Amino acid sequence: MTTVTLDEAKLHLRVDHEAEDNYLEGLILAAETHISTFLGDDWPEPMPAPVKAAVLLLVGDLYENRERQADRALNENRTYSLLLAPYRSMAVL
Predict the structure, then answer these.
(1) Whether pTM exceeds 0.90
(2) Does residue 62 belong to any structural domain of this protein?
(3) Residue 4 burial class via C-beta count within 10 angstroms: exposed 0-12, middle 13-18, buried 19 and up
(4) pLDDT of residue 89
(5) I need a surface site. Which of 6, 12, 32, 91 has the fewest CB within 10 A?
(6) Is residue 51 part of a domain?
């Protein structure tokens, strides 16, 4: 399922050390799992650039806001939703 490599995530985050590689790999897995659930279907093949960008945005949010509490209100990133909306499966009940 991996769409984002560790090197791509580190470039996106501007991380140039290896001390948090295992942590970042966990964040990539968490972001991809969440997005897969959010989309409600299998990963589109080939992976569209907007979905990959959304994974990177979520990894960035998880990396920057790793504490449960924050000194400011955290809101949903509208860009994330806009990138994923065209690929989301919506079941009709």
Answers:
(1) no
(2) yes
(3) buried
(4) 79
(5) 91
(6) yes
DSSP letter at 69 equals S
Whole-angstrom distance, CA of residue 71 vs CA of residue 37: 29
Number of domains within the chain: 1
Q: Give the residue-averaged pLDDT of 22-39.
A: 92
Residue 92, domain member (yes or no): no
Cα–Cα distance for residue pair 36/12, rounded to 1 Å: 20
93 part of a folded domain: no
Bond preceding residue 46 cis, omega within 30 of 0: yes
> Which positions ≥6 away from 11 have C-beta within 8 Å?
none
Cα-flanking dihedrals φ and ψ of residue 27, to 5°?
Answer: -65, -40
- Domain limits at 67? 6-87
> Average of pLDDT values for 51-80?
81
